Amino acid sequence: MFISIQNVCFSYPNTDRSALDQFSMNIEKGEVISILGRSGSGKSTILRLLAGLEKPTQGTMTIQNEVIFDGKTFLQPEKRGIGMVFQDYALFPHMTVGENILFGLFQMKKAEKKKRLAEVLELVELQDYEKRYPHQLSGGQQQRVAIARAIAPNPHLILLDEPFSNLDAELQVKIRKDLREILKKANITSIFVTHDENDAHALADRIVKLKDGCIDMIGRPCDLLGIHPQPAPQFVPIQETRELVSV
């Protein structure tokens, strides 16, 4: 199993309510996972815990068999090999596209940086935009730069926070398809949070529906739509499953 998250709990200070309660799931290499839920459901909290921006109150998390958190371990964010694409892209306005992408490659030699930059620009189809600045790009192009910057260091995992919230509806449709193709070509495991079911169904291999900090449902997009191209087990909400077991 590439990523394992087991029984993770978390509460923000000065509140009795759990932001995340016994969250568990396993993720395979190269999977695209969507965390879907309303505001306050806990979906962004999962990203913060994986990134190391918050510390769980209990549970375990491992990436490629390396423990990043348990009762004795807390791996610092910079050592986790995780890339992030922020909601507002967080591009440096005074840097060109190329400079933004190269920002996280400080450990590479000059020739290696140049090669990696060319590879990533080709991946996101921005080969002719290396010398441009963020303000000279469209919203979709800025998002591609943010994705390229996150992919460039070859992270174990990429986290995306509401990746389409700053795009108009028409552009969202095209960018969804493009983003999935980019992530699959790069073969990078990805988790993105969204409140939009269309985003989740268009991009994800599996969708995790959160409600009040707990997993409500988890499955493939076709499962959640009730479409079964092949015979599959009946999809039952987790809460109902617990009730059946208790009986």
UniProtKB/TrEMBL annotation:
One example of the protein's molecular function in GO is: ABC-type ferric iron transporter activity
Reply yes or no: does the keyword Transport apply. yes
Report the protein name in the record. Carnitine transport ATP-binding protein OpuCA
Start and end residues of each ABC transporter domain: 3-237
Q: Which GO terms describe its cellular component?
A: membrane
Superkingdom of the source? Answer: Bacteria
PROSITE patterns recorded: ABC_TRANSPORTER_1 (PS00211), ABC_TRANSPORTER_2 (PS50893)
Q: How does it assemble?
A: The complex is composed of two ATP-binding proteins (OpuCA), two transmembrane proteins (OpuCB and OpuCD) and a solute-binding protein (OpuCC).
Keyword list, A-Z: ATP-binding, Cell membrane, Ion transport, Iron, Iron transport, Membrane, Nucleotide-binding, Transport
Task: State its Enzyme Commission number(s).
Answer: 7.6.2.9
Listed under catalytic activity are: a quaternary ammonium(out) + ATP + H2O = a quaternary ammonium(in) + ADP + phosphate + H(+)
Q: Which InterPro entries match?
A: AAA+_ATPase, ABC_SmlMolc_Importer, ABC_transporter-like_ATP-bd, ABC_transporter-like_CS, ABC_transpr_FbpC, P-loop_NTPase
Does the record's keyword annotation contain Zinc?
A: no
